[in-house]
Predict the structure.
Amino acid sequence: MRIEELLQNSLASLPESNVKNAMMYSLMAGGKRIRPLLLYETLKGYGIDETLGDECACALEMIHTYSLIHDDLPAMDNDDLRRGKPTCHKQFDEATAILAGDGLLTYAFSCILSSKLPAEVKAGCAKILADMAGSGGMVLGQDLDMREQTGVTTWDDLKTVHRYKTGCLLSAPLMMGALISGHGDDVDQWHEIGNMIGLAFQIQDDVLDVELTAEEFGKSNSDSRNEKVTSVTVLGKADAEAEMNALYAKSIESIGKLRGFDPAGMAAMIVAIQKRRK
């Protein structure tokens, strides 16, 4: 994928350091690159050259990778395996992993601001990413997730966690793509579509967590180990899968209703996500 070369080159100008090595290790450890690809599919659906989103695509993956590095730390999920490889704090050490996450978080915004997009579009994309990744978005979801580890939660409670922890950062590329394409009026609709995809994606992770070994899944089965409440423990596996499939279908239906957007590519990508086993 072209995004791999873009990511490989994205950190090249940084001074050599152990932190840079850790940033590169985690950023290039593989992964599905779903967020950059969602951005590209949004641009293509609006008939826009996808290369206009390159810097934003790299920024999205940097933010996602930083969140995984910090999520894996002993103070949070305490995971040893990510994308089939030792987690960043296991490969390096905890202090380096924290700094690597910090480095990716801050450099992401440098990437957006270095793009050739109009100033107001760059500012808008940076704000979307900050809002979706920050203390009113993904970070809030992580906080809720940590607090919900103790005690029983309802399905509505769990949906709130997933809306912020997973949905926000899957909404961000869709919202940014609409803005870059000159369809700012669609941003709110894309936000809701991203929330649906995010909830479906998280349910799917919960199902795969109980179906696959850590080696097959490519990451530690920490939810089971930590006795966390998941969609499977609340709904049961069969009902969780039914909810997942309904959400994916509803997201495709909603995309098809957007004016001036060709939904074919995005729908195909969502179907591919729905069939994933990692």
